[in-house]
Structures are given as C-alpha cells and as structure tokens.
User: What shape does this take?
Amino acid sequence: MRRLPNPDDLLILLTVARLGRFNAVAETLGTTHTTISRRILALDKQLGGRTLERSPHGWELTELGASAVAAAEAIEETLGSLAGLIGEDQNALSGLVRISTSDGFGAEFVAPALVRLQRRHPLLNVEMLSATRKVSQNRSGVDLEVVVGRADVSSAQTIFLANYFLRLYASPGYAAELGLPETLDGVGQHGFVSYVESALQVEELGHRSSQLPMPKSSFQATSIFAQVEAVRRGAGIGLLPNFMVAGKPDFVPVLAHDFQRQLPIWAVARPESLRSERVQAVIAALKEEVHQRQELLAA
Amino acid sequence: MRRLPNPDDLLILLTVARLGRFNAVAETLGTTHTTISRRILALDKQLGGRTLERSPHGWELTELGASAVAAAEAIEETLGSLAGLIGEDQNALSGLVRISTSDGFGAEFVAPALVRLQRRHPLLNVEMLSATRKVSQNRSGVDLEVVVGRADVSSAQTIFLANYFLRLYASPGYAAELGLPETLDGVGQHGFVSYVESALQVEELGHRSSQLPMPKSSFQATSIFAQVEAVRRGAGIGLLPNFMVAGKPDFVPVLAHDFQRQLPIWAVARPESLRSERVQAVIAALKEEVHQRQELLAA
DNA sequence: CGCTCTATGTGCATCAATGCACATGCCGTC
DNA sequence: GACGGCATGTGCATTGATGCACATAGAGCG
Assistant: This one.
C-alpha cells in the first residue's frame, strides 16, 4: 500500500530530531522506545539509508534524515492547520481615498489598516494601487503614496511610518538538501530569488545593489508574493522582507548576522491632500497598524 | 499517540476524492474496499464530522472533506518531493525563461510549477512578470504569457491550461455581524471588494461587468492579494478567484448558487518560443501543476 | 574498579488493523 | 418482474504492529 514514505514514521523522526532520545520521544508520544526504534528502522528502509547517527548528545540527523525532517515539518504544519480549522463608529468619513503602495506591505499592513478604517466609516470608498515604486515627482493621481527607501520630494510632506528589514531566507527543505552558505561569498553557489532587476524602480530591493555574488541560478519575479512562494518551494535563497516570513516555519534565516538591510517606509502626501480629513484618517490608521504590529516589522 | 489527524487516512480520503469509489481506491492502493471504508470512518471520527456524502456519481466531499483533502494534497506533495529527492534524473535544461502571468494565479500555480522545474534543472533561470492583463497583440518580450479570459491572437498558439471561478466571498466575521444578502439585489447593501475598474485590462475580473448592483461602499485594489486580505479583514463581499480562498476558514461563499463566473486560463506562446525545449518544459510543468491541483481550481 | 543509571535492542505475548467471505441495497437490462 | 453486476457494510480469521520483560552497552560517580 505504501509507495510513498510513511508520513507517520516521518513525524516520529521529526520528534526524535527535536528531542534526541528514543525514551523522551516515547514518553511524549505515549508509546515505548521499542516502537520508536522499530519505526525509525522501518523508515530507514523506506528511504534507502540511515536517517540518524549516534552523537555524544544523542541522535543526530544524517543528510537524508534532514531532508526527511524537512518533509515532516511541512506535514506537521499542514496537519496543525487542518486541526485548527475546527473555531469582530461614528465620525463618518465618506468619499474616495486613493493610495499607492508596494504589494507586500500593501496586503500585509495597508489593506488591514484601510479595512479597519472603512468598517468604522462605511461610506468611505477605497482604491489601492499596488506598485513597488519610488515617490512620484509629479502629481500622481493618488491621495497618498506609501513608498520604500528615500523619499526626497520637495513639494510633499513625508511621514515616517516604520522601518523593516530585507534579509536572506531559504526554506528548511532547501537548507536540509543543499546546505546553507557560511559566508556571504558562498551565496553565489546557490539559486537566488529576487525582483526582476530590469523592471525594478527601487534598486535597494534588488539583488544587484546587495553586492552579493552572482548566483548559480536565478528566479526573478515582479511580485513579492511569487518570490515568497518560490523560496518556500525551495528555489533557493531569497532577499525577502522580514515581515512576510518571520515566524513562519517554511523559512529559515540565512547569514542573519552578516547581511541585512534596513529600509524605511514613508507615507507621502501633498499639502492639499493633507488638508483632507480622509487622508489624515488614513495616515492615522497606518501609523496605528504599524505601531500595533511593530514586533512583526522588527522580527 | 495521535492528537493530529492521521496523515495516512487523509491520503486515502484524497484518493477517494479523486476516484469517487471505494473499490477503485482499493485497487489503486493495493488493499480492500473494506479497509478504505473503515479508514474513512476513522477519519470522520478524528475530524468530528462527515468528510464524504453520497452522490449519483460516487462520493463527494463535504466542506470539511474539502479542507481535509487540501491538507492531504499538501502532504502528498511533500512526500513526493522527498521521494523524488532519493532518486534524481538529468535532462539538464539551462538558460533563461521569462513568463508573464497574473499575480494570484502566478503565485499559486506558476511559481510552484517553475520551482519544481528549476529544482530538476538548476541551470534554468526564471523571470516572472506579474501583471493581470490581456494577451499581448505584439511581441511582449516574454517567452510565454499566462492570461485570463479570451485569448484571441492570430500570431501565437494558445494552450488551454484550466478554468477557474470568480465567486462572491465574505469573511465569517463579516457575515456574522452584518449578515449576507439572500439575493443578488441585496449585494448593493454591502461593501464590495474588487479590482480598480479604471486600471483593469481584463474587464471580466471587475465589478462593473458582473452586473451586480452598485455597492454601498467600495474597496478597490490592483493587487488580488490586497483584495483577499481586505475581504479577510471584513471589508465586505469580494469577487475573488476560488483557488485563492476555497477551503480556507477565513472565507465563506456568498450566493454561490446565484452567481459565479467561469474564466479560462491560457498559456500563449509564439511559434518561435514553442520551438524552445525550455518553454515546452514550462508548459508541461504548468499543465502538470493544474492537473494535480484541479480540485482547487474547481472548488 | 565497581556500581548505578540511562539508552537502545531482542524475543514473545497481546492488541489493533486488515483480509476474506458473505450480506444488503441499488441500478440497468432483458 | 427477475436477474446480473456493482458498490458498500458486517463478522470472523489472519497478519502486522506494539507492549512488556529482559539483555546489553556506555557513561558517570564514589
């Protein structure tokens, strides 16, 4: 009946990897060390190699074992999500407000802030334009721009919202299979996921300005969501905004002490827009959203 | 020993969902219908509800069943990747392939397909351009376009990939607080989340062409991810692609029997692109991805 | 060095899962 | 209406997985 590795055995290996001893695993899972030992033996047979080897402080994973554990982690998360499946006014604003924002920050912070505002002011209509761009030097047709990086424009007011970080991330599966570099020079031996350089307005977001070595292969996308998905699926090391991946088990930091780039996010509005109560409310809502979720931005 | 749903039982449910009959499943998995029946019964107990119900053409998934199948698919893929890791192959593709695709379908289907391909062919470089647009009438600078809706262009070949559905969805919190409409006319009493009409190339994706009544308030975004997030956060009823929200607990269908719009997705390439082994491999990878995940597209 | 404790592995008994034979119900054809 | 085929469910026998008791090995302490 089994042509794929047994997922239960993989989950047991995962617990062994976490706890290091069969007895501890047996206790945690409510069974005996004998069963644990046998299940690991069975899994080694399915996979055609040893997943564990002895070390002074208990069992350690072989390379094959690490790949298996990565798969187990993914399965565990899937099961956890399925298990979790079984369990939210008065100064009425109205009219239309148009905001331009980058796609990742837009979906993660701007949309929730605007929804919260709109729910308090149901007559307020909202238009979000997603584009990862520099601040416009001319009239842009929007009431407010949310931009990354420097925001030098003389005819508008810039309001600091937050800093976030670009860091290097890979998936646990990728790390387990190909290993991770120990220096920044080693990054060149890996696939790299980033923005499409030729279509990028904010060059701080791209690979080229990072001064990292040329990668072995590249996966470039104009959408940060596609980049995140590519890293999750093991395309390689990606230069990603921390708030999109921090705390998620599908991503591990890479060379976290050696490379990171802090980028500011600004709200930029012209004086005439700032006279609008609507726009002021949006700015307040954005500030509130980043304030309430600053741990995510600093993660 | 089990506090999470049994992954083996989930994989059996997945096969039932695909084949529709216990006997067929038993034959495929090398066991008996009796065992299949019992395992489904056991799974229903673990999940606290029925996963399958009878229909004229075999078993059909309940809503709970659909969630379970989604989890099973993720597990199957994880296991498949692990199994594939243990036995490699080598018809090495290399060079750059550039694909244009819409942002939602791009992140959900195209990026995973391309990552899978790139992992088999590490020398293959990938560029994804996200834009929700009509097929280009001229040379677009990409090897392959993935487009929504009609794909009438005389100088290129169109390859059908899949159909998906635009449906109305709201968040459970929104539904509980404000109720949901009982007719399509009632939709006008609610907030509506959709694309920005003035910036939309494929008008079938927008509110205007839906002929639904003008909403009380609107939340429009150029990014489908921002739209999804806005609906999740309770902005109102959204016209969303089923594959982005089906089976997720943050979204409930609205007037599912009264409104839906089926849209085709095509891969479009010029003859000279089609002569490229790379592009052919990408097309095959895309077909495989949508084939393996057709339940999500039909959900 | 001897003793104790902990960790893992082996053999036999027990328990849970599965296979097999049969029963029941439904649908289609003659 | 009767018959045949197919799909699913029940009861008992068989098989495979797990528990229990014991054995062996290694590490740490006196």
Remarks:
- Residues 31-32, 34-35, 38-39 of chain A lie near DNA strand D (CB under 10 Å from a C1').
- The domain at 7-84 of chain A is CATH 1.10.10.10 (Arc Repressor Mutant, subunit A).
